[in-house]
Amino acid sequence: MAITLTSDDAKDWIYKGEGGANLVLGYCGSSPFLVGKVLRVHKVLRSEVQSVIERKRLFSECEQLVWGDIPQLVKSTSKEIAEQVFAVQVMSPLLDSKHIDGGVPIFVTKEFLESVEKNVHTQRPPWRLHATEVDLLSHSALLMSDHSVFSSGSLKDDVCVAVEIKPKCGFLPSSKFIAKQNAVKKSVTRFRMHQLLKFHQGEISQPSEYNPLDLLSGSREQINQAIAALFSTPYNNFRIFLNGSLIFGNLDGSDSSKNTVYSANQSGEIGASIEDQIKVLIQGEFGFRLATFIELVSEAIFRSGVLDRLLAVQKLDVFDIEGTIHVYYNLISEPCMVCKNLGDSESVQKYYWLHTLSFEESLKIVRDFLIAATAKDCSLMISFRPQQKSDSSQDFIHLESSKQTFDYKAYFIDLDMKPLDKMVHYYKLDQSIVSFYTQCGIQVNNDAVAESL
Ligand SMILES: O=P(O)(O)O[C@@H]1[C@@H](OP(=O)(O)O)[C@H](OP(=O)(O)O)[C@H](O)[C@H](OP(=O)(O)O)[C@H]1OP(=O)(O)O
Ligand SMILES: Nc1ncnc2c1ncn2[C@@H]1O[C@H](COP(=O)(O)OP(=O)(O)OP(=O)(O)O)[C@@H](O)[C@H]1O
Ligand SMILES: [Zn+2]
């Protein structure tokens, strides 16, 4: 960690976005080392702000066993170092290092974090602001390339349009450990069912039209359909940036009708606005550019095969949470809370087998589940620019429809390790999602369709 950011540097960092766990800042100063970079700063739940003394250990004893074969990971002295090591040593070999940017942890002072938090206060979405704050006890943050621009730094005249996609889980589980009453999980995506629950809870004004199975299908036509659906209901699954600035979607990722950038339902207006803004990248008549852009994004996903790899990693979740939760209890050496509440002897027998697995087998299953969980929650950023040299070493796409060639780069972001102590949460959330769907989901589904007519 060569540099330290202090309170004098805070003015050069502006709000770029945030998720549940991190605040991301863009650099607007003139240091050549930092131009084209973003800083990913940890947040904590306001309800869980801890003192230095209470601070939880980075890895519990059990987690040290799960990740024990990656010594650098379990020996990490900060969350940022752990994130970098996890992205580079665990996710990168699975997803291809060409699509991974582990970033560099750098030191930040408490005064820097306090100033930045104050400066970005008004730009933060109210519901994020209410729930989380910058972790002032962090001594470091992760410096990464800004993947919403094509080349970091020098090439000021570069034109770049980038998309950010959060694909979520792109397969239907088929584990025999899925309980009979939850069999619907094998035919309806978790994303769809979760959308209906979110709709019921008032978090979104309509269920998303996007289907992860299409995006991760490997079929050009279905990928195209998925991207078109993301335009209708982007939520936190889709954003577009022009030269690093958001031009479509929401920074806070929630329902666009509640938090303005563009309203998802005014597709005519959005279409016009986007058509206008992407003309720097896509040539052609007004009215045709958006379709060409959708074709470009779909083609990049299809040809790069980047999501095929992501899907394979997601599928490391072989047993589904309904099987893995039992194995988790083997690891923490506690009585299984799920078996305790099982009624019929047939199920008891079915899950008994999972409790006979060895410690090493259990470690592997839980570890694969956690890796898959990261792959189900990460995002992909793809940046495009008009091709500058035909002998460019960059990946490129030629579109016959617009007779243009584009360079592109694809990077995964948010490849953080999921904590082991989230397993019970995963189980409970899964059960809430599926039981809501089986009890009232179909009704909600019909109501949502009726409302949108
Ligand atoms: O459980 P899910 O599928 O709702 O995923 C959570 C995401 O919700 P969403 O994609 O909006 O449905 C959620 O995203 P939002 O905060 O809703 O934007 C987070 O990504 C969360 O991960 P973490 O707790 O920040 O590490 C995600 O939690 P994980 O399940 O990936 O741990
Ligand atoms: N390297 C990057 N380049 C450009 N923008 C980025 C980069 N990393 C993150 N962002 C922006 O910041 C937002 C939040 O980042 P990130 O997804 O890492 O946060 P998070 O809190 O870990 O998310 P989650 O809620 O999924 O856990 C992203 O949605 C993206 O718009
Ligand atoms: Zn059990």
TrEMBL record:
Keywords (A to Z) from UniProt: ATP-binding, Kinase, Nucleotide-binding, Transferase
The record's annotation in InterPro entries points to: Ins_P5_2-kin, IP5_2-K_N_lobe
* Enzyme superclass (EC): transferase
What's the catalysed reaction? Answer: 1D-myo-inositol 1,3,4,5,6-pentakisphosphate + ATP = 1D-myo-inositol hexakisphosphate + ADP + H(+)
EC annotation from Swiss-Prot or TrEMBL: 2.7.1.158
Query: Is Nucleotide-binding among this UniProt entry's keywords?
Result: yes
Q: Which GO terms describe its biological process?
A: inositol phosphate biosynthetic process
Q: Does the keyword Disulfide bond apply?
A: no
Tell me which domain of life the UniProt entry assigns to the organism this sequence originates from.
Eukaryota
TM regions (residue ranges): none
Q: What is known of its domains?
A: The EXKPK motif is conserved in inositol-pentakisphosphate 2-kinases of both family 1 and 2.
What's the protein called, per UniProt?
A: Inositol-pentakisphosphate 2-kinase
Q: Which organism is it from?
A: Dendrobium catenatum
